[in-house]
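Subgroup meeting minutes
Present: P.N., E.W., G.H.
Scribe: E.W.

1. P.N. recapped why we're keeping a running log of single-chain structure predictions: easier to compare across weeks, and new members can see raw inputs and outputs side by side.
2. G.H. added today's entry (174 aa).
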Amino acid sequence: MSEVKKKNEWLEWTKAIIIAILIALFLRTFIFATSIVEGESMDPTLEDGERVIFNKIIYILGEPDRGDVVIIQRPTKNYVKRIIGLPGETIEINGSDLIIDGKKYVQTFLTDDALYKTGNIGPLTIPQNSYFVMGDNRAISKDSRNGLGFIQAEEIIGRSELIIYPFSEWALTK
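Output recorded in log:
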């Protein structure tokens, strides 16, 4: 193999590696990222220590929806919670009943045990550009009921899409 051909081959490999790195950085910065679940506030949907991939671009293209499991960015830490109430809605929680704009909403993502540990709240009207969130493990979750308050739209940095670690737990998070 000639010296020029070897040099060209190295140059091509170097370009391919640089392009791959740039694509990976672009995807991680603007499209997808990972987050580690800390704590048990989203049990059984997400467990402590699981690593999830979250979609960062989805809320640039659309609005969060009720039931979405979202990543909330706060100055001290990120939180993983489920959107329960949307901007402008009036919500009330009466024991195991979630009432949104006067209509009972069935929370299919909760265990029976979690339903009875939600407590009583409201009625509350959610401000525009804000969301009401709760963890699926209602008894221990720090959420809009008890410390996080209403979540501003710009604090929601993505929607959890997929559990990637531990490998035995691979699943969609909806």
